[in-house]
Amino acid sequence: MLDFVTALWLGFIGACVGSFLNVVAYRMPRGMSVVWKPSHCPNCGHAIRPRDNVPVLGWLWLRGRCRDCGQPISPRYAIVEAAMGAAFLLLAYRELFTAGTNLPGGPFADVASALDTVWNPNWIVIRIYAYHAIVLSALMAMALIDQDRERVPLKLSVTSLILAFFCAWQWRHLYFERAPGFFRIPEIKAPVDAVLGAAWAAAPWIIAAGYWRLRNQQSSERLINLAWAAAVVGAFVGLRASVRITALWLIAYIVYRLIIRKNNSVSPLVLLWLATLTHLVFWKTFASLLTCYTHNRGTPRGAPLRWRGWQTHTHYPAGA
Q: How many CA atoms lie within 13 A of 7 on its CB side?
């Protein structure tokens, strides 16, 4: 029961984050502050009353119309709030309440439940959950902006990348598949993994944008948005995970185009958001299916798995 109540609470927080992301997606491309002016109807300018500003429920109570002018309110607001709420709730059950059994090297605690990881805080697990919630939030904001055919603001992209690189340097346990072969200094493996993930994921779109500009004497806003979004995902999850997420993304895009033949109806970044969420939820499954895990010779049955000689620990120290 405590798990369910806690999950609902986290889902509500996610829906509130979704409400804020709707504001970010509308205001940032227009150079407006996302903090100082309260939410208001874009048609009549009246401030939205607190009772009407409850995520999802507010839109339902108003039946999709402004209380003051009666103009329709796009259902996208409620859909984004519901999607973020569902993502936070799903990650809570798959990641937070299980101490990361869905992640390589998990679980990161001997006992896992809402009581053991949230109310008696396990800061490693909470930090991992918050980190993944942040990348989903940043990616959703970019997807909404791209859906509106606007360029993703440089401030949003750069801030997201700086945050990912800072976390990689400060908390190395956020990166579960750090490459062992390039560098022998443990302190820089996670930051290097973040840089490699960002560079690999963004490179194809940067090359495509450069080709488009040379051939047509203009840049493609959509390709630039794709490059920034892919870089953010790669920086947050690392190189190996970004390769798998890109594969999932391309499969989802192909299936979508086969089913929905209408062009440009949904931003590709929406599918990237779905691919990223899917990979986070089933990370260990995808890693085991698409990656060759091997036991070192002489390792007894049941011992922790190794990645080509790199030990995947089941418990990370706070600064590891």
A: 17
For residue 137, CA distances in Å to 31, 40, 141, 267 come to 20, 22, 6, 16
Distance of CA 250 to the CA centre of its chain: 17
Cβ–Cβ under 8 Å, residues 278 and 236: no
Query: Please, are residues 165 and 195 in contact by the beta-carbon 8 Å criterion?
Result: yes
What span, in angstroms and rounded, lies between the C-alpha atoms of 276 and 83?
13
3-state SS, 66-131, equals: CCCCCCECCCHHHHHHHHHHHHHHHHHHHHHCCCCCCCCCCCCCCCCCHHHHHHCCCHHHHHHHHH
The gap between the terminal CA atoms of the chain, to the nearest Å, is 33
- Give per-residue pLDDT as tens, 231-257: 999 999 999 999 999 999 999 999 988
The domains of the chain are located at 2-311
In a 3-state reduction of DSSP, which class is residue 62?
A: coil
Instruction: Give the separation between CA 103 and CA 279, rounded to whole angstroms.
Output: 10
pLDDT in tens, 171-202: 999 999 876 555 666 678 899 999 999 999 99
The structure's pTM equals 0.87
- Tokens 């690999």 label which residue? 200
Q: How far apart are CA 213 and CA 220, in angstroms?
A: 7
Rounded CA separation 168/170 (Å): 6
Dist. CA 117–CA 150, nearest whole Å: 40
Kindly provide the b/e burial profile for residues 197-213, where b requires at least 16 CB atoms within 10 angstroms of the residue's own CB.
Answer: bbebbbeebbebbeebe
CA 138/CA 21 separation, integer angstroms: 8
Q: Determine phi and psi for 155, rounding to 5 degrees.
A: -60, -40
Which of 38, 37, 39, 47 is CA-nearest to residue 68?
A: 47
Q: pLDDT tier at 280 (50, 70, 90 boundaries)?
A: very high
Residue 95 has phi, psi (to 5 degrees) of -120, -50
Q: Distance between CA atoms of 259 and 229, rounded to whole angstroms?
A: 24
